Amino acid sequence: MASSPEVSISPGEAITTWKNWFSTHWTILKICLEERLVYRGDFALGTLMRFLPIVTQIFLWSAVFSTLPSTNQNGEAANIQGYTYHQFVAYYLLTMISRAFSSMPGLASGIAKDIREGAVNKYLIQPIDMMGFLFLNRVAHKLVYYLMAAAPFALVFFLCRDFFSGWPPTETLLLFFLSLIFAFLLGFLIEATIGLIGFWFLEVGSLLFIYMLLNFFFSGHMFPIDMLPGFWRTLVELIPLHYLAYFPAAVFLGQIEGDALYRALFIEACWIIALLFINRIAFYYGVRRYSGYGG
Amino acid sequence: MAAIEIENLTKTYRVYRKREGLWESVRGLLHREYRDVHAVNGIDLTVEKGEFVAFLGPNGAGKTTTLKLLSGVLTPTSGKAEVLGFVPWQRKNEYRRRFALVMGQKNQLWWDLPAQESFRLHQQIYHIDPTEYEKTLKELASLLKVQKLLGQPVRELSLGERMKMELMAALLHSPEVLFLDEPTIGLDVVAQHDIQNFLREYQERQETTILLTSHYMKDVAALCKRVVVVSGGNIVYDGSLNGIIDRFSLHKVISLQFAEDQLPGDLSRFGDVLEIQPPKAKICVERAQVPYVLNRVLAEQSVEDVSVEDRPLEEVIAQMFADTTEEHRPNQLTEEPTEF
After folding, report:
1. Domain containing A23: what range?
2. Yes or no: domain B2-98+175-246 corresponds to CATH 3.20.20.140
3. Is the Cβ pair A291, B94 closer than 8 Å?
4. Fewest 10 Å CB contacts: which of A261, A278, B131, B162?
5. How many domains does chain A divide into?
6. A12 to chain B nearest CA, in Å?
7. Do B72 and A124 touch (CB under 8 A)?
8. Is this complex's ipTM strictly greater than 0.90?
């Protein structure tokens, strides 16, 4: 029989409810993991390809720096906007890690496709939350990716160890890890919300392209954003994209410290909460517009 | 108590009308014409618990839209509906755990995983008791004869096998109400027959309330006592399958076999001659005229065998669809500029 929400819940029932909740989500995660592991060939190849850009970056910056005198007039090591050759390479290696957390290949386009082709029906009929499900699916996606990529990543960092000036302190390391988790949440929410725009426009390809473009420049994927001149830098810091690549790398390299670091993390948390609300609202109204296409 | 109550339910879609050609596509960016399509146009329907009801109608009649409204996928434009006392489009979890929708053209299972993984997920999200789950799973698998296929990735199953798995997934939580949207579409005769048999047995055992849409009259004839015919978003008939013939078929078919090589005279004076293959002939005669025609033919000629039959159900229904679609063809055109 249907239990009405007014009925008060005893502590025992509350525990059962939580147990149910946990075991449901655990099962979803496990099944998503199994599904991801089906595509291990594709994954292995994808992981390898991710290391190609970093090689070109290393060559590019070594070529740029080879044209500069090895020390400037003040006797400092050659640098561009405060970044030495080694710092550049270390920065790019670290953004690779940030992006391994924050990039969400196929998320927005997948949601839009589900809307266009009517696959959203499944989430509306079954007692399951679409966004929660996609989130767990993405967590599984990422876990499998890290499992596959851990060894190659470790190898690359080991080979490139000379570009780093040692491990940062434990606190910084912990905050770096937190910033990566936040980057994952932020990346998920931004792309998932773009995908939900599909309820209104059906096709989000060009929107996604614009997002990718902005992401490429303003996340710090292309260059460290603290290289930007004053006005642009303020602007870029106002939008949350820099948390997706630049910020974790800057935390690791000790470029943001103390109060400034905690403040930045707090602002990032606010963005995550705000986007969560926007996402829920978009889903709520989107479903009302939905026409259950096909069939 | 009624399981499903629908009152004046309406769903209107606004569709963008594009004229042909590239220039019109460009024009469409600035100025769009919309057409209102009344997919469901004020339907009233009550279905009692344990009934097995067929929804018939031509493509685009509003059958699937009705099922989508009742399963909460769509929000109606106006009107009321209650299923098991719930308003479907509020999508309460309590409601979602008590019904199921199976669409013949949609896949709800995980494509790359064996069906049993999807089933395990269903056990969790529908909160099915583990022992109950094992029992139901075994029962369904043996009824559908798919025990050996449970561990095979869904993408490797044939269409018929996949449909059986879809049905299993939908029935694991023993829904009280089941919506079936063309469950036998594209299946071969054997698989169709299997699914019909399964549905009949399952429904008798569980007394599930089932709403079925299908284009195969055999499905309907085998399963449903009550038939609701929808056309142009309206219900045009609600009753038994045989009642359709009584009400919509004004003709009967008389088959005659004449003695030896006796050629029948001019049969067309009695009605439409459907075929002549001496010594046999078939004529289609108005129902009221049947006794008169039989009298005349038997008196005038030596007939060895005679039979009077209803026209085939498919033909009657096709005729009925053709008539009702013409009456209800919606064509309201509203023209509005879109702002940019």
Report:
1. 17-69+79-289
2. no
3. no
4. B131
5. 1
6. 17
7. yes
8. no
